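TA notes, week 10

Several of you asked for a full example with nothing omitted. So below is the full record: structure tokens for the whole chain, then the designed sequence directly under it. When grading your own attempts, check the secondary structure regions first.
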């Protein structure tokens, strides 16, 4: 079902906090946010924090969200 897989976007203008996540069946399966510095939560282990050497662009984040969604939808 489509509602089982969706992208979540959060932005707080007061503190510039940004968070992007791909949610599948109620669980984060990929994410990227700037809490304590930009980092990714990889599909293989969404609880892990992989810090970025360079701040990711919004385009980079959404490319990774799309790629992760395609992998999940394909059942791999």
């Amino acid at each position: 079902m489509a509602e089982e897989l969706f992208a979540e976007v959060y932005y707080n203008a007061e503190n510039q906090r940004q968070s992007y996540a791909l949610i599948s069946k109620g669980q984060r399966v990929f994410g990227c946010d700037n809490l304590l510095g930009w980092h990714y939560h990889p599909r293989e282990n969404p609880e892990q924090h992989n810090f970025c050497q360079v701040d990711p662009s919004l385009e980079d984040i959404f490319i990774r969200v799309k790629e992760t969604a395609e992998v999940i939808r394909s059942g791999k």
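The chain has one domain: 2-74. Use that as a sanity check on your answer.
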